[in-house]
Every structure is written in structure tokens, then in C-alpha cells.
Amino acid sequence: MNNYDKTVSGSDSSSDDDSVSGLEEGDGVANSSLNSSRPSRGKRDVWCGVGNTSRSPIFPLRRVVWPPTSNPQTSFRSGYVDPRNARWGNPKLGSKMQLFSQTGYYLAVYPDGKVRGTRDAADPHSFLEIVSAGLPEHVRIKGLLTNMYVAMNKKGRLYAESDPNSPATVFVESFQGSYNAYLSRAFAHLGWYLGIKKSGKFKKGPKTKYGQKAVKFLPNRSRFE
């Protein structure tokens, strides 16, 4: 190796040493600055969807006011819903009606405690009133002539109940096209509906299911116009 080669190799090795040492010093400075800017685990504050709703500016949580405030008005912008604002029945004709089953019968409540269908549209036992049960879509079906309520017992049989506070009288009203359906609140987990068979007798809850003709009722308010 001549003198020129020795000079070049010596300069290369010295420059490599300087760059390596400079890189190590730079890494130390970068790591120290990164560690100083990183928050400790004890001070991290992450919003997880509960608690203060102002932490989520894009999707604020909607809350129900209960007990309701002194002002019964609902403000959708504020994100609160007052259950007292639920409206029941037809705004012009009220909640009085007849319920005409798709099987061809009017639902009727009789003073002997029986609930069945009748083909007589003028039968006063078929004049009903839909009464709110306190929660949205929760209703009671009251016979205007007898002042008794449609109820369902633990065997799924319909009967007329005089106690308006009985849990057996509460039904969940839903819509199936142009028809109404009434699911027993006490047996909602079993899917038991109010139903009238083609014979006019009530249909037991275990025999009913969503979409059947027997559980579809068309509200008729012509008698109360």
C-alpha cells in the first residue's frame, strides 16, 4: 500500500468514528426530549364514552330527564327528552276507537270477564279506549261500556281485568303496515301478542307470533266522529 492509500483510509476511518459518535449523541438528545414530552401513565385522561358528554363534541349522548323538570317542553338541541311529551291517539278524534282484526272481528270486552271478537260493528262492547300506561308505546285497552281492561294471564289467555294497575293489562303497541299489533308487556320475552282467531275466540299467547293475521288490528274511529 502506498502513502496515498494510507492517507485516504486513515481519513475514512476517522470520519466514520466521528459520524458514529455524533449519531449516538444525537440519539441521546432525541430520546431525552421524547421522554420529557411523553405524559406519564398516571396523568393520561382518555374519554371512553361515559361520564361527561362534553368530551365527545361529535356524538353527544342523549339523556332522558326523569323525574321531568318543571318545564315540560322538549329541546332536541340540548339533547334531552321529556317522556311527558308523548301524544296518544288521534289528535282530532282522541284515543277512542274500535279495533278490527284482520280475521274479520271487532275486539270486544264483556262484563262477564270475557274478551272475544264480534262481527257486529254496532256492539257497544267493542267501543274501546287506548289509555297510556306511562311509557312510550305502552298502552292499556279499556272497554268503554264495562270500564274493564284487556289483560293476559300466565297461560296466555285473554280476560277482562277491573284493576287498571295490574301489570297484565299493559301492552306494547307497534305497527305492522297499516295495522296495529299489541305485545303483552308481561310476556314480551316470550313474544305473546293479543290475537283473535277466525272463529272469533281469542288466540292464546303461545300460539301467536309476529306477522299473523290474528294479531293485526285496524283502528276504526268512524263511530266517534
From TrEMBL:
SUPFAM superfamilies: Cytokine (SSF50353). Residues 30-39 have a biased composition (Polar residues). Residues 14-27 have a biased composition (Acidic residues). Residues 1-48 are annotated as: Disordered. GO terms for molecular function: growth factor activity. InterPro entries: Fibroblast_GF_fam (IPR002209), IL1/FGF (IPR008996), Let-756-like_FGF (IPR056378). It comes from the Eukaryota. Belongs to the heparin-binding growth factors family. This is Fibroblast growth factor 1-like.
